[in-house]
Write a structure and sequence with these properties.
This protein is an alpha/beta fold. A five-stranded parallel sheet has the order 4-5-6-1-7, sandwiched between helices. It has a two-stranded antiparallel sheet with strand order 2-3. The chain has one domain: Rossmann fold (3-Layer(aba) Sandwich). It is built from six helices and seven strands. The two termini are 26 Å apart.
Length: 191
């Protein structure tokens, strides 16, 4: 999938592509929406775009993936060494401090074969308090050439200190508008 495969999310996708085009890539994104599966697809597309060998370009910067090169295919199949996924585990469905420590160890290494290292936290609202606190240092001082992507259907469950360190993109379901912003300073989908 490429960004053009998300027509119902055109407003948030356009904001993301504009930041890519301008070379203003954030170090951490919070993708919030109604369906984790769709957010995972969007995060995967961002990972492919950042590491694509033949991206669609605007102003000489990658704004979408080709979806066919070896990097895109490996990311799509979840077997690229520079793209790491963390999901809630155990019966309690939480993301543990052990998972976060392992992720932070991986993300602090230089990319193996791609331009960027990416870490995607699926269900970031499921971080337990110890895991969230351990993750804060990485959010405050991210390694170079890395992007952290947090996915959630319940952003209100995340610690305020985590929310404040991420650029937030709201993905509404079925083309509906995202809920009104809670905090001052939100500009067209970013918080």
């Amino acid at each position: 999938m490429s960004f053009q495969d998300f027509p119902d999310q055109s407003q948030a996708i356009e904001l993301l592509q504009r930041s890519l085009e301008r070379g203003r890539l954030g170090h951490a994104y919070l993708l919030a929406g109604h369906q984790l599966e769709e957010l995972e697809s969007i995060a995967r597309t961002l990972a492919k775009t950042l590491n694509c060998r033949q991206p669609r370009r605007q102003n000489d910067r990658a704004v979408d993936c080709c979806d066919t090169c070896p990097n895109c295919q490996r990311i799509e199949q979840s077997n690229h060494p520079d793209v790491h996924w963390v999901r809630p585990e155990s019966k309690s469905r939480i993301i543990s401090v052990g998972q976060m420590r392992e992720l932070m160890q991986e993300i602090n290494l230089k990319p193996n074969e791609a331009n960027y290292k990416l870490a995607v936290l699926v269900g970031a609202d499921r971080l337990n308090i110890q895991a969230a606190n351990a993750f804060l240092k990485t959010l405050e001082e991210p390694p170079p050439r890395s992007v952290l992507i947090l996915l959630t259907t319940e952003p209100q469950r995340l610690l305020e200190t985590i929310l404040s360190r991420c650029l937030r993109l709201n993905f509404a379901g079925n083309g509906t508008r995202p809920p009104a912003p809670r905090r001052a300073g939100m500009v067209a989908g970013f918080q």
